[in-house]
Specification:
The complex is a heterodimer of chains A (198) and B (647). By secondary structure, chain A is α+β, with helices and mostly antiparallel strands. In chain A, 54% of the residues lie in helices and 16% in strands. Chain A has one domain. A five-stranded antiparallel beta sheet of chain A has the order 3-2-1-5-4. In chain A, a hairpin with a 4-residue loop joins strand 2 and strand 3. In chain B, strands 6, 7, 8, 9, 10, 11, 12, 13, 17 and 18 form a ten-stranded mixed beta sheet that branches. Chain B has a six-stranded mixed beta sheet with strand order 41-40-43-44-38-45, with no helix packed on it. Chain B folds into two domains: 508 residues, Methylamine Dehydrogenase, Chain H (7 Propeller); 127 residues, Sandwich (Immunoglobulin-like), CATH 2.60.40.420. Chain B has seven helices and 45 strands. Chain B is mainly beta and 647 residues long. The chains are: A alpha+beta (198), B mainly beta (647). At the A-B interface, helix 2 of A face loops of B.
């Protein structure tokens, strides 16, 4: 591996550490009764409100449409994700330290699979909350489901839900992007090097 | 003779000015688009000032926005307020306790905002109760009365609760002199047995009030007060009338003397005398009510105050002769001029603080009453304002060198110069103006945009509403040379005094919810799982929660005729502007209105068998109408057990 590649992988690993500081994703809800908005922050190991009590108030409102309460303690991903990311950071630094190309491919591969799996899991999670509604709910609108978009805005009854990656999520994306570009570059270099010598 | 001529000329000048004003000088309501835009606050926009008006005989406080005149809130203080359970709920009943027992009504008069360095600081608002002497403190982050202290050895607490420059003290005084301490004596023995009392109430850094000392003074009627500021900091001034000491038909008998007195009190000197042990300990019983850290009102029965007399503490009180039955006394922003509204006088008298100090040093006295030297009028006079209108009462200041005096009888505001003491402008008030208010107009730094007239009668100004008509406030622009009427709006109760402060001082400090984590009420129910019903003898305690959109429990059985049912209701909401109400059929108390995170208790005495609904009274959400429950009441001795449901 080139020295510059090793520096880039080290940088990507350290950048990934930002997910412990900033939220991965953010969902904002606006309604006439909530001019200041309500919001959720999806963090690596927790889900909280943007403002104190937002989560409690969102759960309170969601009970009208029969949505399950969001209880961070009962979401296993929030316990698993920090471990995965910590391992990825350590492994990334190991890749940078050793300069081992095979390790790099494995690291980037696992990182890509993990990222996609995370997004799919998030989508499934929001699908479950948005579709799996209590049939005895007070407000039932035929055909209406309440899954917020992964990215972008959607009108859900009186609320407009807007979903965007947070700083932590963006850091992870940039990190996995750097990893991928470095891996492709190293793979090309290795192939052309093999051709030259072979 | 000379005085009579002046008086007549004053009358004539007043009438001429009124006529001129009537011929186009005034601003007819609705006829001036310019005025409309000056007070227009677009929907969703905020007013620039909070305006606090005394509720007068309602016992409450009105809160308005300026310049729009929109009513924002009424704060219950000295009177029960069934709308939210104030004075009915178990947690607030104690706030209306006095040494006379529970008093359900009060007469609130003068809102006074706390000050630091002579400038309004937005910490608290004080207001006095005239009938059963008390002072209340309102927290300006919750707009709730948090403390009420009774003033012992006093009667008719009118000259109150004006604060000193740094809110070291808020004051109280006796408007109706009485035997002090109280005694069973003939009313005719007024001159021998009746006294007045000037009370200084210490305000601690956390706002908590305590009676620091009381000054026993001759039995006159001490009417209004203001404290010194800047160079006159350390002094307080109290007007008095009835120096004739009449005890009957005061309208005639108390109007005979050409001059009465302003009592100038050097309270720093009083502090020295108290520290030197020159005070006397009186066994004075009074009640002190405040919210404890559980947000529950408690009453402490206090006894004992320190009383000092001018005879034993020299250099403490001086009398400033002042014509005639003076009402308001106001100190200008410089702290150097003391303005008296002699309500039967032909002039407004302005005393000089500097000259007063010189006269005291020179012992320029014309007499003495009970150890109080009387200063020579001519030696302390800064000036007399001629033609100030008839019945001058109160004066406020714009901070640009002008004073504004209300004249009750001629029903006008008169603007005059603090330099020349000459009237420069006048504007009619509709009608019978009492107090007037300029934001910060009694402080060192007024926000001199407007003066607000506070009118006692409105006769033909509004749609009539039977025999009782509204009182009113009038917003008058004082930014230019000529005063200009912008807006007139009805007020709740009788607005005696009023004060205003810039919204920016307190707007962003407003409490939105009471965090449940910090709810230390011993009977709070913090989760629905903890909701329950317990019988203790003839008392049934219901530990109930509210959240959109249900009560827990909402089916209660096992209550019997003759029980006392205590509903301890906790609002579990932690969302701004989501109160819940609680009301039950036949309650002889009131409803409850519960702010988010708050616990309040109301007692219900079921007298008939049956099943009785209770419900939420504050439209809380889309399913508010569904927020209800039932209590089954069985005959006395029934075998139906206590039962209740939880989710």
């Amino acid at each position: 591996m080139l020295r510059s590649s090793r520096v880039l992988i080290a940088t990507a690993s350290i950048l990934l550490g930002l997910v412990f500081v900033f939220p991965l994703w953010r969902i904002d809800l606006k309604a006439p009764q909530y001019p200041e908005g309500l919001g959720l922050l999806i963090k690596i190991s927790d889900i909280t409100g943007v403002k104190p009590y937002d989560l409690q108030n969102i759960n309170g409102l969601n009970h009208y449409i029969g949505m399950k309460a969001i209880e961070p303690d009962s979401i296993p991903e929030l316990r698993f994700m920090p471990v995965f990311v910590a391992v990825m950071i350590a492994a990334g630094l190991l890749v940078a330290g050793t300069g081992n190309r095979a390790l790099l491919y494995i690291w980037v591969g696992v990182f890509l699979i993990g990222s996609v799996a995370g997004l799919v899991d998030f989508w499934l999670w929001s699908y479950d909350y948005g579709h799996n509604l209590d049939p005895t709910a007070a407000i039932k609108v035929p055909g209406m489901t309440y899954q917020p978009p992964l990215i972008g805005s959607k009108k859900l009854l009186n609320f407009v839900a807007t979903s965007w990656p947070g700083l932590g999520g963006l850091a992870a994306m940039v990190s996995v992007g750097i990893g991928s570009v470095v891996a492709i570059g190293e793979w090309r270099r290795a192939r052309s090097g093999a051709e030259a010598t072979g | 003779m000379i005085r009579t001529t002046k008086f007549a000329m004053g009358l004539a000048a007043g009438v001429v000015t009124l006529l001129v004003a009537g011929c186009g000088g005034g601003t007819p309501i609705g006829g001036n688009g310019d005025a409309a835009s000056a007070v227009y606050v677009a929907p969703g926009d905020y007013d620039e000032f909070y305006f606090f008006t005394s509720g007068g005989f309602s016992g409450h406080l009105g809160v308005y926005g300026l310049p729009s005149g929109r009513l924002l809130k009424q704060v219950p203080i000295f009177s029960q307020w069934a709308e939210n359970g104030w004075g009915y709920s178990e947690e607030t009943k104690a706030m209306l306790e006095t040494s006379y027992g529970f008093v359900p009504w009060g007469d609130s008069h003068h809102p006074e905002l706390s000050q630091t360095d002579g400038v309004i600081d937005g910490r608290w608002l004080f207001i006095n109760e005239n009938n059963t002497p008390r002072i209340a403190r309102i927290d300006l982050t919750t707009f709730e009365t948090v403390e009420i202290i009774e003033i012992p050895n006093s009667a008719g607490n009118h000259a109150s609760p004006f604060v000193t420059q740094n809110t070291e003290y808020t004051v109280a005084a006796t408007r109706f002199s009485v035997p002090t301490p109280q005694a069973d004596v003939p009313i005719e023995s007024f001159k021998e047995n009746f006294s007045g009392m000037l009370s200084f109430v210490k305000v601690a850094d956390n706002g908590r009030m305590s009676i620091a000392f009381q000054i026993l003074v001759p039995g006159y009627n001490y009417d209004l007060s203001h404290s010194g500021k800047g160079p006159s900091h350390g002094w307080s001034f109290f007007t008095s009338y009835n120096t004739e000491q009449a005890n009957t038909l005061l309208e005639v008998n108390a109007s005979q003397n050409d001059k009465d007195y302003i009592a100038a009190v050097n309270w720093m000197r009083a502090e020295e005398c108290v520290a030197n042990g020159q005070g006397e300990q009186w066994t004075s019983n009074y009640v002190h009510n405040y919210f404890n850290d559980q947000h529950i009102a408690v009453s402490d029965m206090e006894n004992g105050t320190t009383v000092i007399t001018p005879a034993t503490c020299s250099d403490m009180v001086y009398y400033l002769p002042t014509p005639k039955s003076p009402h308001g006394v106001n100190v200008d922003p410089s702290g150097l001029l003391i303005v008296a509204g002699g309500k039967l006088a032909a002039v407004v008298t302005v005393h000089s603080f500097t000259k007063m100090i010189v006269a005291i040093e020179n012992e320029d006295f014309i007499g003495e009453v009970e150890g109080i030297p009387i200063l020579r009028y001519e030696s302390i006079l800064a000036g007399e304002v001629e033609n100030p209108g008839l019945g001058p009462l109160h004066t406020e200041f714009d901070g640009r060198g002008y004073a504004y005096t209300s004249a009750f009888i001629s029903s006008e505001i008169v603007k005059w110069s603090l330099e020349t003491f000459e009237v420069v402008d006048r504007i009619p008030a509709y009608y019978s103006i009492g107090h007037l208010s300029i934001p910060g107009g009694d402080t060192r730094e007024p926000w001199g945009k407007w003066v607000i007239a506070l009118n006692k009668t409105t006769k033909d100004r509004y749609l009539p509403t039977g025999p009782e008509l509204t009182h009113s406030a009038q917003l008058i622009d004082i930014s230019g040379d000529k005063m200009r009427l912008l807006l007139e709006f009805p007020t709740v109760g009788e607005p005696h005094y009023a004060q205003a402060l810039p919204a920016s001082l307190i707007k962003d400090k407003q409490v939105r919810i009471y965090p449940l984590d910090e709810n230390h009420h011993p009977l709070a129910t913090k989760t629905e799982a903890d909701a329950r019903v317990e019988r203790e003898g003839r008392n049934v305690h219901v530990y109930m929660t509210t959240i959109r959109t249900h009560f827990v429990p909402d089916n209660i059985e096992g209550v019997q005729v003759g029980d006392s049912v205590f509903f301890h209701v906790t609002n579990l909401e932690q969302d701004w502007d989501v109160p819940h109400g609680f009301a039950i059929t036949g309650a002889n108390t009131s409803e409850l209105l519960l702010m988010p995170g708050e616990t309040r208790t109301i007692v219900w005495l079921p007298t008939r068998i049956g099943v009785y609904p209770f419900y939420c009274t504050d439209f809380c959400s889309a399913l508010h109408q569904e927020m209800q429950g039932y209590v089954r009441v069985s005959p006395r001795g029934s075998s139906v057990p206590i039962s209740f449901n939880t989710p």
